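Appendix B, example 12.
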Amino acid sequence: MQQLISYIAPAAPATRRPAKGKLPWLRPEIGFTPKWYRQTLDIDFGEKWHTDLDYREETIKLMRRELEVRFPGSSIAAIDQPEMQPDILTGTFGACIISAIFGIPIVYSSDNWPCTSKDYLSAEQIDNLEVPDLYKSEIFQNLLGQLEAIRNKHRIIKGFMNWQGVLNNAQRIRGEDLFLDMFDNHERCRHLFDVICRTMLEASTIVQKIQSDSGFENSFSNVSNCLVNMIAPEQYREFLLAQDIKIAERDNCFGLHNCAWNATPYLNEYSKIPSVAYIDMGIDSDLERARQLFPNARRSLMYTPMDVKNKDINQIKQDLLKIAAEYGPCDIVAADIESDTEDEKVIEFIRLCDDISKEYEQSVSAG
């Protein structure tokens, strides 16, 4: 079965990509915030970065060179994998494109990922919501224009849009009232989740088809359930499980992102989703149970940037040994690292992952 691995392109939010070749027991995936890059390179990550293809490509080259200088020989942002380049698509519009398609304005920042405004839709607007006409959507048409420009310049359109998940997108569209609706108006929630799910599938299918026609296969589905810990497992089962299953069934290769939360309460429901090729969670999760339920998926541990910064190297080593024993083989994702974390700490983190992987691989080879 195809597996997915974590992927953090320069200054982009974490996403997933297909796994290739033999993977180490602990595979580190390191990511830095836009602010980390801006403080060194003075890149403006505002609206121009997301809409001006030439500017974005120029700055991605600068960021890749900076990574090569500061972390030589590493795989950060796939700098060691020329087959992934040029990826000038991943990170476009951050995690906001679906909510923007529904008319929620994007708020850009010079040193951060874009976010959505708080111009949420009213109850009446939600009740009358329909799948938007994507060919009349300004932001989706902008994206299609960028895809065409990439194809004209580079022939192959590499990279991955971040479509988020149904719950994440619903919160960006409805705001905090979403969680009240989940108690007070079940039909409104079901309608909103259904419309979002169908829009995500339609938009991503169009983009994947364009990429496939260019020679880049992107045939997997991927959702971000960053807000799942804000709802009960019973609510996930009632409102969202069917939507995630619908998305998973399109490609039969599905990724589940949970941030660094404790995913234990949701694991049994997640196990009902077909073709899970990737799942991540935080260190407080029942890692052994997750490995038992998802033996064929590439599992991933979201190691917080606070832990990378604040824990001493021996504490980090003990965490990694625990993860390796209970959850491996897996990815270790250290995302959202800021400039107040020393480069040497990041290098040592990668080295620990490599050393532990070698020990496990030698143990397996020895029988």
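The chain has a mean pLDDT of 96. Residues 186-214 form the longest helix (29 residues).
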